[in-house]
Write a structure and sequence with these properties.
- The protein has 16 helices and 15 strands.
- The chain is an alpha/beta fold.
- The strands form 4 sheets. A 7-stranded mixed sheet has the order 4-10-9-8-7-5-6, with helices on both faces.
- Strand 1 (19-20) and strand 2 (25-29) form a beta hairpin.
- The radius of gyration is 26 Å and the shape is globular.
């Protein structure tokens, strides 16, 4: 029976048999094998035909050409590229985690229990009353949070049209507010790099729906006037939104909810050791205070209160609806749960302390001007009259990854640096040396950098606007 279902003829073999060329390539006849229109198909496909050692060497060589967090520090300010412990991958790869998302609540009690536990972990860490795990990324969490705020205002008959955002905020904050239908009011920073409280007081009013704020802010400074800021926003009838991009500086030491924030998102890929980058799945849970809980997305996991231990997925009373499928990106959430459970309260607080220590230590060790301070998890040095991008490219020649450049705009020729909590003193010294040597190099050397990497300078504008997305064999000549 099996052979009957897989029946083929030698005529089929002859039609599709690969033809080996002298160069070790194989040409496969693909005629009549595609349902696509003729103008979208080709008659044959030529592919390389390497041996196993050639394949192994090729991909190993490619991996060595790229930078990876497993081979060295990745101090991109704000993006928080840190090493993620491999045990979280093992947990997510456990066969028991492979649960079909459309099963009944009764048959996935372990899954729902873990989701509920992560909701409780995150609520406690952020000082929130309820958390949704649905959003699939930090930016999606932002949008979810602002849509919750919008639903709250609409339910209470508040006609609000503006969201206030500091000049130092992440670019996604401005985009999020606009996508939710709000006008953006940009708030300037004061001379110390923090929110200008007088400007805030003048900016908010009866049209203010929310203030979106990161604390510590994008240059690593804690907003010391946060209690006053919260009062100003709340007195105007607005809500205070917390961008969780920099939460790793506060773990176990301060909570946004205690500062007066009403809604926040958590970047688990930054703070709780799940993968970051590469276009793969992410997660951006959102926490809210009690008054906003009824607007959370559906489904929301809650404990069953009928005398039996159990959990169920429900739709909050005034839910904004679905923002992602099922209960979110389940395997990513498992990793965040495992990381928090392994570290515990003391471990999370220690991670925050090391993040702050490493940022301040590195800021002291480099010769560039570093405005403001003291810092939390990151700092923004300035290249002054040098081009920050040139200095960064030169740093590549010393076997380190450079920081984020040219942002935030409040620091000229900014080099936004975040060593994270994972780096030791030796690693920080290597980074400092690369900073200092690159910054001191001549204009000629910087203009030609990098000189020791596999790829030299590329046309970044063309690479972004007209990327080559397909492989094509080159002619012999």
């Amino acid at each position: 029976m099996i052979h009957d279902q897989a029946r083929y003829t030698r005529e089929d073999d002859a039609l599709h048999e690969p033809l080996l060329s002298e160069k070790g390539e194989q040409t496969v006849d693909v005629r009549d094998s595609s349902p696509l229109p003729d103008d979208l198909t080709r008659e044959e496909l030529t592919l390389p035909n390497p041996s196993e050692p050639e394949v192994a060497r090729h991909y190993t060589r490619l991996s060595q050409m790229n930078w990876a967090i497993d081979t060295g520090p990745y101090p991109l300010g704000s993006c928080t590229m840190k090493y993620n412990p491999k045990f979280t991958e093992d947990v997510a790869a456990d066969p028991n985690a492979a649960v079909h998302p459309d099963r009944s609540d009764r048959s996935v009690q372990g899954t729902l229990e873990l989701c509920y536990g992560l909701q409780e972990f995150l609520a406690d860490i952020g000082g929130m009353d309820a958390v949704t795990l649905q959003p699939p990324a930090g930016a999606a969490g932002e949008l979810t949070g602002i849509l919750i705020a919008k639903a709250y205002h609409e339910h209470h008959g508040n006609d609000r049209s503006e969201v206030v955002i500091p000049a130092s905020a992440h670019g996604t904050n401005f985009a999020t507010a606009a996508m939710a239908g709000y006008d953006v009011v940009e708030l300037p920073s004061d001379e110390n790099g923090r929110v200008d409280v007088e400007a805030l007081d003048a900016a908010v009013g009866e049209d203010t729906a929310a203030l979106m704020l990161t604390n510590p802010n994008t240059v690593g400074l804690f907003e010391r006037d946060i209690a006053e800021i919260a009062d100003i926003v709340h007195d105007a009838g607005g809500l205070l939104y917390y961008d969780g991009a920099n939460l790793n500086a506060l773990l176990g030491r301060a909570r946004p909810g205690d500062m007066g924030f009403d809604v926040m998102h958590y970047n688990v890929h930054k703070t709780f050791a799940t993968p970051h980058g590469g276009g793969g799945p992410g997660a951006g849970p959102v926490g809210v205070v009690e008054e906003l809980a009824e607007f959370l997305p559906t489904p929301h996991v809650r404990e069953i209160n009928d005398g039996n231990v159990g959990y169920e997925a429900v739709e909050p009373e005034r839910s904004i609806g679905k923002v992602h499928g099922f209960t979110g990106n389940w395997l990513v959430l498992i990793k965040a749960y495992a990381y928090i459970a392994r570290l515990g309260d003391a471990g999370l607080a220690d991670a925050a302390a090391k993040a702050v220590l490493n940022a301040n230590y590195l800021a002291e060790r480099i010769d560039m001007d570093v405005p403001h301070g003291p810092f939390h998890h990151e700092f923004a040095a300035t290249a002054g009259d040098r081009d920050a991008a040139d200095v960064a490219k030169r740093m590549l020649d010393f076997g380190v990854h450079p920081p984020t450049t040219k942002w935030p705009a409040m620091v000229p020729e900014a080099m936004l640096t975040e060593p994270t909590e994972i780096e030791n003193r030796s690693s920080l010294e290597d980074l400092a040396t690369a900073f200092n040597v690159a910054y001191a190099d001549s204009d000629e050397v910087l203009a030609d950098a990098p000189s020791r990497t596999t790829a030299r300078r590329i046309d970044q504008a063309s690479a972004a606007r007209t990327p080559r997305l397909s492989w094509q064999a080159l002619d012999d000549e």
